[in-house]
TrEMBL record:
Residue ranges of domain Deacetylase sirtuin-type in the record: 1-252
Organism: Dethiosulfovibrio salsuginis
Protein name (database record): protein acetyllysine N-acetyltransferase
Catalytic residues (UniProt): 124
Entry EC no(s): 2.3.1.286
UniProt KW NAD keyword: yes
GO MF terms held by the record: histone deacetylase activity, NAD-dependent; metal ion binding; NAD+ binding
Residue sites binding Zn(2+) per the record: 132, 135, 156, 158
Pfam families, A to Z: SIR2 (PF02146)
Amino acid sequence: MSIKQDVQLCSKLMGKARSTVVLSGAGMSTASGIPDFRGPEGLYSGKNGPTMESIFELESFVENPAVFYDFYRRFLSVVDRATPTYTHRFLAAMERESLLFGIVTQNIDALHQKAGSRAVYEIHGSIWTSRCLHCGREYDYKTSKKMAFSNQTPYCSCRGLIKPDIVFFGEEVRHLRECMDMAKKSDLFLVLGSSLTVAPASYLPSMCHGTVIIVNKGNIPFTSSIVGPKTLLMNYDLDTFFSTLNEELKLPIR
Ligand SMILES: [Zn+2]
């Protein structure tokens, strides 16, 4: 099928769908300059630097928080400069036109919100808030960012260690109940830039009772257990796909 035929099919399904849900992953933001954490060229200091496991592992964080905060400062600098892609903005337009029920994202880069999306479920947590591991005091983004940049490791006034509300390995994902409910009620489920390798997000598409459309440039090592009753694979660059789709839909993109 050509891209024209694929977008026509997608447009038809979107027109018929009563409840469309999106799952977005790292591939959604690479065009914004946010590196894929799981890719070979992450935000890590080369082959001899700390591994992703040691950065996002609660025990190592408590033992040596400076390793995490070295990474986190670089991450925040990239996030601050990053701008949403066409696809992020297209999804925000879909929501404004009541064509999208919600977005489940595995990303922690806040780009969906920057693009104007409101119904965003950040299952791997977010950078919006940080928390003292000792007394539980919450710090907003502005304060926690300032603290991260003015101290090697930020501590609470109670001397407890402050941790951003990002989900670390072994911690429970956020909003799982709401995300599962949305997936179960959906009759169109778009998987965008997610390799569907990280559970439990990878199981959400299989809960959709309609069509699952996976848009991803490159192969996806998916198995039948993670896809719905009807799954379409569309092997395109996201921005190319959605800008072509919008030639059909003509949604106002901001
Ligand atoms: Zn505290």
